[in-house]
Specification:
globular; alpha+beta; single chain; Alpha-Beta Plaits
Amino acid sequence: MSVKAMIFLTRRDGLTRGEFQDWWLQRHRLLAERLPGLRRHCFNLLAEGGPFDAVVEQWFDTRTAMDACYATELGKQVAADSGAHTKTRIRTVVEHHEFTIGATDAVAGA
């Protein structure tokens, strides 16, 4: 089973929503996608007024691979770039469970 990190971001003061989106989608994404060991990367923009501006999902083969990735010079550069554009950056590792809608597994008692 792979490891998934979720990163909750709030843009720094003085950065508009549009500027934040442009930074992430046009510049930071290209840097982050070069991270060694990163298998999948998903950026989710929250509706205006939400508790955060975005939630990032990152998949790695193992926790060790994820930790090693951020210990590299590129990993440190990615974290520093994120820190320069956000006032809140909370990263947590989650246990990811995904289910296919309409799968043949029946729910007991349904």
